């Protein structure tokens, strides 16, 4: 009986693997849909053979296999070569294998005691990333965190700890009114960090940008002076390397000059653009990054590492631990038999921490640094191909010229609006075009691409490429699909 059960368990696992490998195959098959869209109420009501309600009694393994299959069936194939919706996309096979292994090991990153190999991999990989940033001998500190938003939050926390360490014990009342600066185009996580950490969003000052979405350094300096004049204390500046919508790179060197002049913490949010450090052709866009005090870099975006994989890298060693450590006696005993500096978990704001490093380390092994470079260069070439294709094409209007990253932002102007002169009515109509086309794309399941308004600009498409499976034919498909779906609007 025992043997029978073991056999059934192994058979079950093999069948799950079969479901997964079939899904992988279909993901790369352009004749399959990107998604099979259903409204929430439809999924909640239950599809044939697939019910989301939890049951009191155990379900059979056959049903569990159906549940696995249908979960994938009604999801979105983010690795499909025609999925352009998010900054993180693609399905890297080595990364996937790494994630499977990670789940199989099912351990926790907080101590060397229970994750010896993963902890060392994390240390080595962070050092390599710091070398790519340009910090001498790769010295410094860092952690993998649950995403760019959290990495950015770390940067604000350690900046505050650097200048006002007493806040750790006494709270914000021990500090004067502190101010953070970030671009109006920066990711909302900086504002969120301001709210969550007790600065208040009123103390997160947004900086003006040029027509390509890059911070204007003179505006930073003017705003610092203004804040000082009011008696508040400027603390932290975030420079974005690859903004979420425009893919803009703020001028880090000029911002660093100002930070040095006024003694402010400089953080570079390279969640999206950090990957360009791997490319000899494109890394100049981050010139000056080595002057930052901290850097966010998400391998799960531009480098195609499966979610989640984000690093916060810090120039000063020891500050993460100083800021966050609580020395819990039950976990971080100082009298273990090994070098306990490898118990890195107390640097984190979490206790338990998922192993995000293995898949990244494995991909780096499999591709080499050169493989990541080729991937980055290819994605940027594809975006240039799209830009060249639609720039000056009838029915398309660019939001800005000369993209810096893979972000290409554009309006599709349906024939009905082409002859119309600029007016409130035209703006309102144009605002509705991208959401309508997107909804039709999703209903038909052919492709997905993001849209948004920005400042006073009405809804436009934001195309991004980070998936290694994308080819020029997929870019052509997207353009054709937008024209097909939008021609009668
Ligand atoms: C520039 C930038 N920073 C931070 C983030 C947040 O990263 P995550 O989604 O991993 O939290 C994003 C996400 O798109 C981003 O574009």
Automatic annotation (TrEMBL):
Keywords: Decarboxylase, Lyase, Pyridoxal phosphate
Cofactor(s) annotated in UniProt: pyridoxal 5'-phosphate
MF-aspect GO terms: glutamate decarboxylase activity; pyridoxal phosphate binding
Bilayer-spanning residue ranges: none
Cellular component GO terms, alphabetical: cytoplasm; presynaptic active zone
Source species, domain of life: Eukaryota
Family matches, as InterPro entries: PyrdxlP-dep_de-COase, PyrdxlP-dep_Trfase, PyrdxlP-dep_Trfase_major, Pyridoxal-P_BS
Biological processes annotated in GO: gamma-aminobutyric acid biosynthetic process
Modified residues (N6-(pyridoxal phosphate)lysine): 301
Family membership noted in the UniProt record: Belongs to the group II decarboxylase family.
Self-association state and partner proteins as the record states: Homodimer.
Protein name: Glutamate decarboxylase 1b
Species the sequence originates in: Oryzias sinensis
């Amino acid at each position: 009986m025992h043997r029978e059960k073991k056999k059934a368990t192994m058979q079950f696992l093999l069948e799950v693997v079969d479901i997964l490998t079939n899904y992988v195959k279909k993901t790369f098959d352009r004749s399959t849909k990107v998604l099979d869209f259903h409204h929430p109420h439809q999924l909640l009501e239950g599809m044939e053979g697939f019910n989301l309600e939890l049951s009191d009694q155990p379900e059979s393994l056959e049903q569990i296999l159906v549940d696995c299959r249908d979960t994938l069936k009604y999801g979105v194939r983010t690795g499909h070569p025609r999925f352009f919706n998010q900054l993180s996309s693609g399905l890297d096979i080595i990364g996937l294998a790494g994630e499977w292994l990670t789940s199989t090991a099912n351990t926790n990153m907080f101590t060397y005691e229970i994750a010896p190999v993963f902890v060392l991999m994390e240390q080595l990989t962070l050092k390599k990333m710091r070398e790519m940033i340009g910090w001498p001998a790769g010295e410094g500190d860092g952690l993998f965190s649950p995403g760019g938003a959290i990495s950015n939050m770390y940067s604000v926390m350690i900046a505050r700890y650097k200048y006002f360490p007493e806040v750790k014990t006494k709270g914000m009342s021990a500090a004067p009114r502190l101010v953070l600066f970030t671009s109006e185009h920066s990711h909302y996580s900086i504002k969120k960090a301001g709210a969550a950490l007790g600065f208040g969003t009123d103390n997160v000052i947004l900086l003006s940008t040029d027509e390509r979405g890059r911070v204007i350094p003179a505006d930073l300096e003017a705003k610092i002076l203004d804040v000082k004049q009011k008696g508040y204390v400027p603390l932290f500046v975030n420079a974005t390397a690859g903004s979420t919508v425009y893919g803009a790179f703020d001028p880090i060197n000029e911002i660093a000059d100002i930070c040095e002049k006024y003694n402010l913490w400089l953080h570079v949010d390279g969640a999206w653009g950090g990957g360009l450090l791997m490319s000899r052709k494109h890394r100049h866009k981050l010139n000056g990054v080595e002057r930052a005090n901290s850097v966010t870099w998400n391998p799960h975006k531009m480098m195609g590492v499966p979610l989640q994989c984000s690093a916060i890298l810090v120039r000063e060693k020891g500050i993460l631990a100083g800021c966050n450590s609580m020395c819990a006696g039950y976990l971080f005993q100082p009298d273990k038999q090994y070098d306990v500096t490898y118990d890195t978990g107390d640097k984190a704001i979490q206790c338990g921490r998922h192993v995000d490093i293995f898949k990244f380390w494995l991909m780096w092994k499999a591709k080499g640094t050169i493989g990541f470079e080729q991937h980055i260069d290819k994605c940027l070439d594809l975006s240039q191909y799209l830009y060249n294709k639609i720039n000056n094409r009838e029915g398309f209007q660019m939001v800005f010229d000369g993209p810096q990253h893979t972000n290409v932002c554009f309006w599709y102007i349906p024939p009905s609006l082409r002859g119309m002169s600029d007016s409130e009515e035209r703006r309102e109509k144009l605002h509705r075009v991208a959401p309508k086309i997107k909804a039709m794309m999703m209903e038909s399941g052919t492709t997905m691409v993001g849209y948004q308004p920005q400042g006073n600009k009405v809804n436009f498409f934001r195309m991004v490429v980070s998936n290694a499976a994308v080819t020029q034919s997929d870019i052509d498909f997207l353009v054709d699909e937008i024209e097909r779906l939008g021609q009668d609007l």
